[in-house]
């Protein structure tokens, strides 16, 4: 029996979780014997060629198709599909899921899968019409959390083929988390998130500023790149509030697991999410975690059980929770322990990969893919 050929098509911008999930799935498939994967990145004008070379050096099977004009992307991906002959094409994220599925249809790929990675995307009426048309020709429409699945259903996606497969992370980098007791960690706050319209760094800055009235001045570290247009207003706010020596902008940080395991609190202040991988990493690192109570985060954290949820855009409420977790060692340790246990049990890459493998084999069977037949020549 030959291996199932699967393309994972995603943006080559490396700025969001969709690309990281696609890479994780390709690597998981490589480690197994059921699926032959290929990662296909859509070229981005501001993409990082070094990241692509890192993946190639690590042995990741990888192709890059044209970016820019959508018609160029579709044409380039059609040519690749006709040459590589996938059994299933998985198109990740907006708007790549549109161009990926158009290419799959034109190339005659037996089964198409759409993965939505956020609860809020820039759907115009025309693009929503396209998404609904494509959904009728798609084997599965997948939300990366139950919250995203519900959004997809509200958009009119087919209920019988719209499912949730929660994202997962590599847990191995956090294997030493239990050796870092919460009491021995730096009593500081880490937020891992790119600077973008989606993320709400400003509310966290204001919450930390208000902690000074309670005699608390925890260090705050922002790890993540993103657009300067979104980072500079946060930097100005830090200066205006007199937090220059307390807040550090780390930029793109290459050892997020180590950073998290050295600190007490992990916070994700945000306006919307799909499945917040950075918050899950904070859970796996054994941090006490706090997130904005928005779809995606609400399905990840159980308030008072393995983390704390606070209202969106509410610095006072966030400050109350931070003060409590900085002062109450026992409660912070209880939440941190439960968060780590939850991350390992519910959000591992291995669990995500098993769920995707089961789904891929099912849609291939439904499409009549014959794995007993010899592979088509390339």
Structural account:
The chain is α/β, with parallel strands linked by helices and 378 residues long. It is 42% helix and 18% strand. It is built from 13 helices and 13 strands. It has helices at residues 17-31, 49-57, 70-84, 96-107, 125-135, 146-154, 201-210, 228-240, 256-261, 277-284, 315-327, 329-346, 349-366; strands at 4-11, 35-42, 62-65, 88-92, 111-116, 140-143, 162-164, 186-192, 220-223, 247-251, 263-268, 288-292, 308-310. The protein has a seven-stranded parallel β-sheet, with helices on both faces. Strand 8, helix 7 and strand 9 (220-223) form a beta-alpha-beta unit. Helix 4 crosses helix 5 (125-135), helix 7 (201-210) packs parallel to helix 8 (228-240) and helix 10 (277-284) packs across helix 12 (329-346). The longest helix is centred in the last third of the chain and has 18 residues, at 329-346. It starts with a strand and ends in a 12-residue tail after the last helix.
Core attributes:
378 residues, seven-stranded parallel beta sheet, alpha/beta
């Amino acid at each position: 029996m030959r291996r199932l050929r699967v393309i994972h098509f995603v943006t080559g911008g490396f700025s969001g979780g969709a690309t990281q999930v696609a890479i994780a799935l390709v690597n998981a498939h490589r480690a197994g014997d059921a699926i032959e994967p290929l990662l296909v990145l859509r070229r981005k004008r501001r993409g990082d060629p070094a990241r692509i070379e890192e993946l190639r050096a690590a042995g990741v099977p990888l192709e890059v198709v044209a970016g820019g004009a959508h018609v160029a992307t579709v044409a380039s991906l059609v040519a690749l599909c006709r040459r590589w002959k996938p059994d299933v094409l998985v198109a990740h994220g907006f708007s790549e899921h549109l161009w990926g599925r158009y290419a799959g249809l034109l190339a005659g790929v037996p089964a198409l899968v759409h993965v939505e990675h956020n609860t809020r995307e820039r759907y115009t009426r025309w693009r929503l019409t396209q998404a609904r048309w494509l959904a009728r020709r798609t084997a599965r429409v997948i939300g990366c959390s139950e919250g995203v699945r519900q959004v997809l259903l509200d958009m009119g996606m087919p209920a019988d083929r719209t499912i949730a497969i929660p994202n997962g992370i590599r847990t191995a980098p956090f294997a030493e988390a239990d050796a870092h007791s919460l009491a021995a960690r730096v009593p500081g706050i880490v937020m891992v998130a790119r600077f973008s319209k989606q993320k709400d760094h400003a509310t966290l800055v204001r919450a930390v500023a208000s902690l000074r009235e309670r005699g608390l001045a925890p260090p705050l570290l922002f790890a993540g790149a993103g657009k300067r247009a979104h980072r500079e207003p946060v930097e100005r706010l830090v200066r205006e509030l007199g937090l220059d020596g307390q807040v550090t902008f780390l930029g793109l940080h290459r050892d997020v697991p180590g950073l998290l395991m050295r600190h007490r609190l992990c916070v994700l202040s945000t306006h919307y999410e799909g499945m917040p991988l950075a918050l899950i990493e904070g859970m796996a690192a054994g941090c006490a975690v706090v997130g904005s109570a928005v779809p995606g985060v609400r399905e990840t954290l159980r308030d008072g059980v393995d983390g704390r949820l606070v209202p969106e855009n509410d610095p006072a409420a966030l400050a109350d929770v931070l003060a409590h977790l900085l002062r109450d060692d026992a409660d912070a340790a209880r939440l941190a322990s439960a968060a780590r246990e939850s991350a390992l049990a519910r959000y591992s890459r291995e669990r995500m990969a098993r769920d995707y493998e089961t789904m891929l084999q099912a849609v291939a069977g439904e499409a009549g893919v014959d794995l007993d037949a010899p592979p088509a020549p390339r």
